[in-house]
Amino acid sequence: MSVDVDSPAPEGGRLRRLKRRFRWAAVILLVPLVLLVGRAVWGVEIEYGAHHEAVARRLFDEMERGLTEILRTQERRPVAAYAGRIEPAPYVLGYFEFDDGHRVLPGSDAAATLAVLERHPRRPEALGDVAWLAPSQPAENLVWLAPGSTVAHNAVPNVSKLSLSSLNRSGSDRRVGRFAGSVGEPDGWPRAASTRNSAGAGADEQGAGGQNSARPDVYSGRLRVSLMRATRLDTEHLVLERMVSEGERTRIQGLVISVPRLGRMLAERTLLGSPVADFAALKVSDDPQIPDGAAHGFTHRFAEPFDALGASLALAPLPDAVDRGWVYGLGLGLLALAPLGLFALYRMSAVTVRFAERQSDFVSAVTHELKTPLTSIRMYGEMLRDGVVPDPAKQQRYYTHITAEAERLSRLIGNVLELARLEKGRRPMNPTVGDAGDALRAVAELFGPQARAAGFELVVEAPAGLPAVEVDRDALVQVIFNLVDNAVKYARDAEDRRVVLRAEAVGDRGVALVVRDHGPGVPARQLRHVFEPFFRGERELTRSAKGTGIGLALVRGLIDGMGGGVTARNASGGGLEVRITLPVAG
Predict the structure, then answer these.
(1) Spatial separation of the C-alpha atoms in residues 35 and 39, rounded to whole Å
(2) CA distance 380 to 242
(3) Measured between alpha carbons, how far is residue 574 from residues 126, 457, 494, 571 in Å?
(4) Are 484 and 454 in contact (CB under 8 A)?
(5) Which residues contact 171 (CB under 8 A, 6 or more apart)?
(6) Is 340 exposed, middle or buried (0-12, 13-18, 19+ CB in 10 A)?
């Protein structure tokens, strides 16, 4: 038995048009979807990085705040304080004052301080151009802009790159604050006798806004004090100093800072109590580098006068950062589901189109199958009616042809009606208990003359003693008849023109009925389709074998209704073997 040729059925025009439309639909849908998912992933990565960058800038801002407080404390220290004892902070090696000689204040680490100062020029000119603080107002009126931002560590908003630059304000505020107003003489400073300079200019004439940012102002009073300047002597030491001019005498006052100690102090002060303390590692150095292996690395150069130093930050992924997992999961899900959805929709549409095309082919086949026997019946009937066949033997042959074509027509109509009832679930089964081999023998007897006329031999192998089965005998005979008819139809060109009908027991579970021909078989890619309604391997207009494509579909429907199963395979040695399994009677 076979189902036509060994090439798949060509696609119909409707199916080809459907494929083209789905290809365009896939492009129109998937390209924007990929761009959308890519944009979403890119955006969440930007937001994720911006969150860590904002935290990094906030930490650097806190370090700048600490340096601002250090600088403010030192610049507000009275000049006279260097004549006594100053208790050094943890990051200070010692305080010093020198003009022609040098003196380290009590309480300092004198040896370390002197060792550092040995590498430092002791000339007042070493400070270069200085900016002087003008003694024109009380010290408490000094205008200090509030350093740092008000953004809390645990409340960093989702910021863009444009807004990140506004977070680091402590350094710029310190720089502006040092020139935003004038300073008077703190307690212990000598008071100036006059507020006018040697040229007679009043304090209000000291530049726009009273700023003293670039030039020294000479007063009739004895005291002038410069802004603090920082000088890096090596990788571990920084000198913070100011120039004090009193009459003809010029002194340098300052302190020696240990950079490692300063770094530890700033890191502890910045991270103390911060929710990011367990995720951040801060380091102060003269040459900050992004730490190797850091998930998120940042560097920062401090504002003047500490611009010789910088900080590096290694920041681990923050738990409160943007959750990228759901974006990736959703994006991958969309990219996976969209093609799958399109493919599923295409498959459903293709099945519908193929089924419609098969139905159309079925209508053409049924029309042809109905027309052929009707034409023969009409032709022989008209010849007999008109008496053009006087020979009784020939008349008998014509009667035989009319009867055979009528039976063929009746079987065709019966198959169509049977399939329609099966698809609607209206085909009742009338099971009876009996021998399955009897059905094989009944079909061989019924179909034998037609098979012999076509040059075929029906071989029945049904041993006695098979287990009884409970089936609808008429339905089973119809099933076997369809299989034998199909075998004779498609194996007509085979050298071995035998059709084997075999019955065998399958353990104690059931009985198998096998119909096997010796034709060309069925291509493997078509085997899973042979039991589908209206399926045929060739296009309707080019097929060489007659048929409607409902015979095997009817076989499966009837066998399923009897609780059995049916399979088809290409037998070794050629030909198709259809195997029906029937349950034994309970």
Answers:
(1) 6
(2) 132
(3) 107, 17, 10, 6
(4) no
(5) 64, 67, 68, 302, 303
(6) exposed
Minimal CA–CA distance to 389: which of 404, 375, 374, 379?
Answer: 379
Place of tokens 């009837």: 558
pTM above 0.70, yes or no: no
- Annotate 547-577 with b (16+ C-beta within 10 A) or e (fewer): bbbbbbbbbbbbbebbebebebebbeebbbb
Phi, psi values for residue 363, rounded to 5°: -60, -45
Strand partners, 246: 223, 249
The confidence score (pLDDT) of residue 249 equals: 80
The torsion region of residue 188 among left (phi > 0), alpha (psi -120 to 50) and beta comes to left
Q: Give me the architecture of the 431-586 domain, per CATH.
A: 2-Layer Sandwich (3.30)
Residues in the chain: 586
pLDDT of residue 542: 39
Rounded-to-integer distance, Cα 97 and Cα 103, Å: 5
Where would I find the H helices in 425-518? 436-453, 473-490
Domain locations in the chain as residue ranges? 25-194+207-315, 431-586
Q: In 10-132, which ranges are continuous DSSP H helix?
A: 13-75, 110-117
Cβ-based neighbours of 521, under 8 Å, separated by 6 or more: 2, 570, 571, 574, 575, 576
Nearest 5°: the CA angle 467, 473, 475 is 125
Successive 10-residue mean pLDDT values, the chain, 586 residues: 40 72 80 80 78 89 92 89 87 86 80 81 52 41 32 36 39 49 36 32 32 34 81 89 84 91 92 86 89 85 91 86 69 77 77 73 70 83 85 85 82 76 76 87 87 89 87 88 87 87 85 90 82 63 56 85 88 87 83
SS (H, E, C) 371-434: HHHHHHHHHHHHHHHCCCCCCHHHHHHHHHHHHHHHHHHHHHHHHHHHHHHHHHCCCCCCCEEE
